Amino acid sequence: MGLLFVTAAAIFSVLVSILLKWMPRRGIDVAQAVTWNYLCAAALCLLLLDPPLDALRAPAAPWPALLLLAVVLPSLFLVLAASVRRAGIVRTDAAQRLSLLLSLIAAFTFLGERAGAQKLAGLALGLIAVAAIVARPDPRAARGDGALVPLLTVWVGFALVDVALKLIARAGIPFAASLLAAFAFAFIGMLAVQLVRHARGRTRLRWKNLAAGLALGALNFGNIVCYVRAHQALPESPAVVFASMNIGVVVLGTLAGVLLFGEKTGRWNRLGIALAIVAIALIAFAPRG
């Protein structure tokens, strides 16, 4: 059952990328869709996870980290959409999953985790993989593909989210409660932005954007819940869940990008994806310090 949850989580994650790539082609306003995505995710979190809201009223509740998360999450979603559009699903999903490298560096530096030889080897290999993945598929092109900045922002941004979640967990806030708070405040902030855009005539609130956003929120929430359920189903095998999820997203993202959208990858990109899979496995199965 645990591996079924992992598979479902990986599929949901790649479907999010597919939907983000599809939306601009259908005239969907991505910013509006991301806004409604958080309404859907917050509602599903409240209904299905039954978060203990009393934990958010505790004096030790890490509100700075929660509010930071509420700002970073929607901003990162918009950058993710730009990266999928410019760099493609293949490179974006690989960069997203390799954000674990920066999370690992933060854990070594600030959170007291020990840096074993195998993890350091995975870290070094992963950094090489990042450099290969962000390379242009056709180095002979006269101009860049505009993908470097969004790819690196995705890489750094997801690591920032991971570190923020670790800090929130250390404060003793249950995962469901912190998730609801972040989703709710992200929705409020994004809704305010969309109302300003609407009032200034820059865009119109449309039903098709709401529908796309609700679908995006359901996929986003499904990814999170299935990943958590996988860890609960395999409590003695966190490395298996972690590696299967991240490698699964890289592989499925590559297949989706190439087969569904005909994305082009250069030799360096393909080498980077292969190195990413090896790096993730090295880090996931490294001995615990």
Automatic annotation (TrEMBL):
EamA domain residues: 1-134
Pfam assignment, any one: EamA
Cellular component GO terms, alphabetical: membrane
Keywords on record: Membrane, Transmembrane, Transmembrane helix
Annotated TM spans: 6-23, 30-49, 61-82, 94-111, 117-135, 147-169, 175-197, 209-230, 242-261, 268-286
Domain of life per record: Bacteria
PANTHER family: ACYL-MALONYL CONDENSING ENZYME-RELATED
Protein name per Swiss-Prot or TrEMBL: EamA family transporter
Organism: Denitratimonas tolerans
